[in-house]
Amino acid sequence: MWGRAPVSPQSSDVTAVVVTYDSAHVLPSCLAALKREGVGVLVVDNASTDGTLELAERSGARVIRNARNEGFGRAMNIGVRAAGTPFCLLTNPDLVYDEGAVAALLAAADRWPDAGLLAPRIIEPDGRFFYQATSLLAPYLQNTGGKLALPEGDCCAPFLSGASLLVRTELFLQLGGFDEAIFLFYEDDDLCRRMADAGLALVHVHDALARHARGASTARKRGRVFKARWHMAWSRAYVSRKYGLRDPARGTLAVNLPKTLLGALVLRRSLVERYGGSAAGALAWMRGETALKREGLE
Fold first, then answer.
1. pLDDT, tens digit, for every residue of 65-113?
2. String of DSSP letters for 64-84
């Protein structure tokens, strides 16, 4: 389907699309690494208020200013449509590529032209190698023994983290990009599932190293934990229905509502935000509410 190009891809064939939302505290390291890798950068900003836009413009990146927070997947789709290069490198602002990582990803794309998505070896802040051997949306690849065997080289995977994905622009757009009904969470699982259903491989590229400050893309503010947990619960229910899996919403509500009440009883706001967000997201799903309506995007 996606035959080998006459000439091996170069860094000039790639646009790194970075979606930001109050990301000024992590963006400089991300942009510096991309500049070192010789990759053009397109920042799609979701109405940041912390100087992210100004920082991106000073770095020389192209910038798209969204008038409101469009969510991760919707903003990423905007960026990919505007990229204008054969490849896009979908990148979280809290991710930093090691030297040579982008070249390794492109070399892998050249070796396996039928790969749908390629991702680097992601290292977490504690030094742990992040590798998720299963996915909610790949039940046919469950590891029934419960053992995690980390790859020692390039391999096909059932899931790749949306923190960093190399994709052919034309393929991404032909598949419809990220599902725009999702505001946040599980959009990468959904994209991986659609790639797999199209008969395309998901390739972990071991020699491409990237450092990920998990959860640091957006500055911490009051209410953001509740919002994140709301969307996580809602999106899990949404993708479960989309692929004919068991609806998790009632179980999510049953587990998190008592914990919310307990958190309120002991006056722990952090517990109320965490568990209350999950309970509220599940309840919203059960009531037929949408993530886009919650964010004023419908």
1. 999 999 999 999 999 999 999 999 999 999 999 999 999 999 999 999 9
2. EEESS---HHHHHHHHHHHH-
**Encoded amino acid at 180, one letter:** E
- Read off the pLDDT band of 6 (50, 70, 90): very low
Helix axes 249-265, 224-242, angle to 10 degrees: 160
Q: What Å distances lie between residue 35 and 54, 92, 238, 293, CA to CA? A: 17, 15, 37, 38
Q: Give the Cα separation of 214 and 172 in Å (integer).
A: 25
**CA 269 from centroid of its chain's CA atoms:** 28
Amino acid at 160: L
Query: Residue 143 in contact with residue 134, Cβ under 8 Å?
Result: yes
Label the pairing between strands 155-156 and 201-212. antiparallel
Residue 5 is classified by DSSP as P
Read off the amino acid at residue 186: Y
The DSSP result for 80-120, as a single string, is HHHH-SSEEEEE-TTEEEPTTHHHHHHHHHHH-TTEEEEEE
